Amino acid sequence: MRQGRACLQLLPALIVAVFLAALLLPAAAQAQQQRPLITLPARILAPAAQRTPFAIGVVPEEGLPRNTYLRIRGLPRSVALSEGHAIAPGVWAIPLSVLPVLAVIVPIGTHGTSEILIDLLSLDGKVLAETRTTLIIASADQALPAPAPPSPARSAPALPQAGSAALAGPVEAAPKAQEAEPALQFYSKGLQLLERGDVDSARKFFERAADLGLSQAAMALATTYDPNELAKLKVVGLQGNAVAARKWYDRAAQLGAAEAGERLRRLGAR
Q1: Rounded to an integer, what distance in angstroms lies between the CA atom of residue 52 and that of residue 66?
Q2: Is the residue at 1 inside a domain?
Q3: Do 83 and 259 meet the contact criterion of CB atoms below 8 Å apart?
Q4: Is 47 helix (H, G, I), strand (E, B) or coil?
Q5: Structure confidence by residue, pLDDT tens digits, 39-88
Q6: Distance (Å, whole) CA 248 – CA 36
Q7: Cβ–Cβ < 8 Å for 175, 213
Q8: Domain that residue 210 falls in
Q9: Kindly report the CA angle at 177 between 100 and 77, in degrees rounded to 5?
Q10: Is residue 248 in a domain?
């Protein structure tokens, strides 16, 4: 009898618990479904001496923190990306706004296979999503393997093919074919020197590459002068120069670097 009364006393609490669970479970499932996802093929096939679209996307775009960006790691040092900027050898920071025109630029003589790690980061460094892909680079006299059919769960939105107007037009003024190889070599050497802390020498190589029309080099050069970027990198003993930074951001913008405009706006706010 007493047990029956106890059950009756607990019944309202049980009803409330079931009701709350019915409300919270769909909300939790919806939150799980809305977590950002990086979409890209399992393999990226990039012939040497060509620009290859980097078919990568982020879904959903709504609800992401402001200034969310991608960090791409594991690229060969001689390989560059058409947008964003290098923050270390083989490591690039890419704003989400340029993903539709992002391309891999491979110089002559480069070949091999690399595992590429991609992180979606908020401005405070929190990892929101991560994935990886394999970059396969064949030399000019090698045949690329047939691409694997994309997985429905990781398929990326269709992007323009290399050589289309969307990539070869005003989006970026890429170096001429005969100048692309030395420009990338100068740029790669500049990154190596920058990693060693030899900023003055790195700037000289970045400038030579920028003079040949490589927008990434102009961006990298401007970054070494930009007080805002130097503060983020916590560089000690290196003074910023807003005038020089503005000059090279202007040059990068002329060459088609999408991020240069935002950097110039930040400089203007100082």
Answers
A1: 28
A2: no
A3: yes
A4: strand
A5: 888 888 888 777 788 889 898 878 888 888 899 999 988 888 888 888 77
A6: 34
A7: yes
A8: 170-270
A9: 65
A10: yes
